[in-house]
Amino acid sequence: MTEPLLELQGLSKAFGAVKACDGVDLTLLPGEIHALIGPNGAGKSTLIAQVAGWLKPDAGAVHLLGEDVSHLSVAARANRGLGRSFQVSSLAGEFSALGNVLLALQGRDHGAFRFWSPLRKDTRLRAEAVAILERVGLAERATVQVSTLSHGERRLLEIALALALRPKVLLLDEPMAGLGPEGTRQLTEFLQPLKNEAAILLVEHDMDAVFALADRISVLVYGKVIASGPVEDIRRSAAVREAYLGDS
């Protein structure tokens, strides 16, 4: 039996009387895109924050590559192979696209930032940064200041920063948000083969993208997983249509 790269066991988090996550079980297998969907307020962002290490769960555990990482920091989880792109941009807008990737690589290798000038002269890191930008289609925009990049380009750059960590597991929090049809198509084409390098837990509202990408889907409503399984099972589920997808 294939062992999951990421496993959530009974993950729970409450804010006062509101149970944002209520005993969530979920697995992510090698070579898989597992989509997490649900209406606004379902608890998706709270769940992802617990997986990433930004929030401590009230109960339950997060296992990454077979290790219980529930009490580890964000940085420690990243060092163990967990990468993440954020729903809200975390890019350094005053730096270039290349500069952002260089900073991510330097943080990966050294755990703390050095002065910018020596970092720019590090030919090994620079070559790796350029290669990562080429992968996401931003090589020609390497020297452009991030604040002047288009929304779609910034989303690609966020994924480039995640890839700089050489992750085994990627958490993608609404990567299609704000993209037009062409941007969504391009990002979907990029993510599909990426799952063979890093399994992906995908939070996304764009159901066309979800159905195109996902191997499995879990549906979160009021903090509980009400259904989980292959795409066609979720499409046919009466409970899922009533709670989220609608009759269409």
Question: How would you describe this structure to a colleague?
Answer:
The chain is of the alpha/beta class. The protein has helices spanning 44-52, 74-79, 97-110, 116-120, 123-135, 151-163, 181-194, 207-213, 231-236, 238-245, and strands at residues 6-15, 18-28, 33-37, 59-64, 67-68, 82-85, 169-173, 199-203, 216-221, 224-230. The protein folds into 2 domains: 1-81 and 167-248, Rossmann fold (3-Layer(aba) Sandwich); 93-165, no CATH class. The radius of gyration is 18 Å and the shape is globular. The model has no long low-confidence stretch (mean pLDDT 87).
Summarize the entry for a quick read.
The chain is of the alpha/beta class. The chain is built from ten helices and ten strands.
Low-confidence stretches: none
Number of domains: 2
Total helical elements: 10
> How would you write the strand order of the largest sheet?
6-7-8-3-9-10
Query: For this structure, what is the CATH class of the largest domain?
Result: Alpha Beta
Give me the CATH fold name of the largest domain: Rossmann fold
> What's the N-to-C terminus distance?
36 Å
Helix share, percent: 25-40%
Radius of gyration: 18 Å
The CATH architecture classification of the largest domain is 3-Layer(aba) Sandwich
CATH H-level superfamily of the largest domain: P-loop containing nucleotide triphosphate hydrolases
Q: What structural category characterises the helix and strand content?
A: alpha/beta
Order of helices and strands: EEEHEEHEHHHHEHEHEEHH
Strand fraction: 15-25%
